[in-house]
């Protein structure tokens, strides 16, 4: 079906689909090129080797943000140590697919000198996208013609590329930070769960939503957004779940409905479908569900999707893994802080938002930008951090403002939008 309507800027969880949704609503539209221009403004190139006269940069957290920072610093000859709470690189599954955008995530990988390795892990065809109504009607079906600017990769493979690009010993696994003490003059003492400590003159919090570094800069605490995701997996879908495999298609599938409901499914590597079921409910509603009883839990969640096409509800009820509840938290929009010597934040630690397809991309971009700023001003760390923070506050506020423009309830708005398109199509 073709959608005979005008282009609209739409931001939905996990994916930026602002380039290819068409509607009869008169919203402001943007292109991938507009965004790339915005990011390129602050994307200067610096030389490769840097005279560094300080302690190694101390990075807390080996997520995509912290590892990108460590890699860009390494490219510029600046030593860094990454302290990670998890005991090993393989101790936790790394989640599903990420679309890496040509206007931020890919620019970070360019700065890290890892574009060739990145191209090697791209999953062909996964930029395809469909939007379905609750009864299974296909409202939008976009194929992946290979020209999109947001190729999909497995998060674990991307993280592995970054890990492999660092000198041995850069990441210290099993180092959970429990407290940090300011020593004055921009120096900090970091204490780990086993009692060990390090003292550093440049501390970077890349430790995600519940950052231990953030309180040094700001009292802000993430708040529940009113939405939670329930995560499920279906394996061997072509043979075991053919109707659902057909409904999801070869890339991403979104099925929104009024009442704050949205099913998002991704065709991952192999014959796996990874699903996030989004529900707008208070946390007490979820607390009343026993997630240790997968059958009862998924049956309760599926009740909220009563009357939906069975190939869609199968994504909830036929899961091959125990469903995982993921309440969504966010920092206040426009979150920022006054400069505190010797410490800063990148990624979710700095600007946690509800999933909007930008979080991992922004974390990597932050890491690359901070790395480049430090390389540009090796003898003036405060100037480097100030430049990085000012640009970071601006871009994260811009993304948050675009999300806000979409309104509080994305599922509601998408459902309304595509219901209208479908009605027109039927007339
Ligand atoms: C359900 C869901 C789906 C998402 N999907 C997408 C998507 O499709 N695309 C996208 O771009 N973004 C997505 N995001 C957002 C994305 O996951 C985050 O924005 C991104 O991972 C942030 O990277 P980061 O490096 O800042 O933090 P993280 O990835 O959270 O990494 C932080 C690291 O710090 C470590 N750490 C934490 N505390 C400590 C401590 N005290 N001591 C030492 N180490 C510590 C953690 O173990 C972790 O390794 C999604 C988020 C959610 C919740």
Automatic annotation (TrEMBL):
Its cofactor is FAD. The keyword Membrane does not apply. GO terms for cellular component: cytoplasm. Residues 55-379 form the FAD-binding domain. NADPH binds at residue 92. FAD binds at residues 99, 155, 348. It is found in: Cytoplasm. Its EC number is 1.14.13.-. Its main location: cytoplasm. InterPro entries: FAD-bd (IPR002938), FAD/NAD-bd_sf (IPR036188), TetX_monooxygenase (IPR043683). Belongs to the aromatic-ring hydroxylase family. TetX subfamily. An FAD-requiring monooxygenase active on some tetracycline antibiotic derivatives, which leads to their inactivation. Hydroxylates carbon 11a of tetracycline and some analogs. This is Flavin-dependent monooxygenase.
């Amino acid at each position: 079906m073709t959608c005979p309507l005008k282009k609209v800027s739409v931001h939905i969880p996990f994916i930026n689909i602002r380039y290819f949704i068409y509607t009869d609503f008169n919203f402001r539209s943007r292109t991938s090129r507009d965004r790339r221009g915005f990011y390129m403004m602050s994307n200067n190139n610096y030389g490769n080797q840097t005279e560094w006269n300080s302690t190694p940069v101390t990075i807390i957290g080996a997520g995509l943000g912290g590892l990108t920072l460590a890699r860009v610093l390494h490219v510029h000859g600046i030593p860094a140590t990454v302290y990670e709470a998890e005991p090993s690189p393989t101790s936790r599954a790394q989640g599903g697919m990420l679309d890496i955008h040509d206007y931020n995530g890919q620019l970070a990988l360019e700065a890290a000198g890892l574009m060739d390795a990145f191209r090697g892990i791209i999953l062909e065809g996964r930029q395809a996208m469909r939007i379905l109504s609750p009864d299974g009607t296909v409202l939008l079906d976009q194929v992946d013609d290979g020209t999109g600017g947001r190729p999909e990769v497995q998060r674990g493979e991307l993280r592995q590329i970054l890990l492999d690009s660092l000198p041995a010993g850069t990441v210290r696994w099993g180092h959970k930070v429990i407290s940090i003490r300011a020593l004055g003059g921009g120096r900090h003492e970091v204490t780990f769960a086993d009692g060990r400590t390090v003292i550093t003159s440049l501390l970077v919090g890349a430790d995600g939503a519940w950052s231990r570094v953030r309180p040094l800069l700001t009292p802000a605490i993430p708040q529940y957004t009113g939405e939670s995701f329930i995560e499920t997996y279906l394996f061997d879908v072509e043979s075991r779940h053919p109707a659902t495999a057909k409904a999801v298609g070869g890339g991403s599938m979104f099925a929104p409905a009024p009442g704050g409901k949205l099913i998002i499914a991704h065709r991952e590597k192999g014959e796996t479908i990874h699903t996030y079921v989004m529900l707008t409910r208070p946390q007490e509603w979820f607390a009343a569900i026993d997630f240790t009883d997968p059958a009862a839990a998924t049956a309760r969640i599926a009740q909220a999707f009563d009357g939906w096409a069975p190939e869609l509800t199968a994504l909830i009820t036929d899961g091959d893994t125990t469903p995982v509840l993921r309440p969504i938290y966010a920092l206040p929009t426009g979150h920022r802080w006054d400069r505190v010597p010797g410490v800063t934040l990148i990624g979710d630690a700095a600007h946690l938002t509800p999933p909007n397809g930008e979080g991992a991309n922004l974390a990597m971009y932050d890491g690359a930008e901070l790395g480049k700023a430090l390389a540009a001003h090796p003898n003036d760390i405060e100037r480097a951090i100030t430049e990085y923070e000012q640009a970071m506050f601006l871009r994260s506020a811009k993304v948050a403002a675009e999300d806000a423009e979409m309104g509080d309830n994305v599922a509601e708005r998408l459902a309304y939008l595509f219901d209208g398109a479908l009605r027109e199509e039927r007339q």
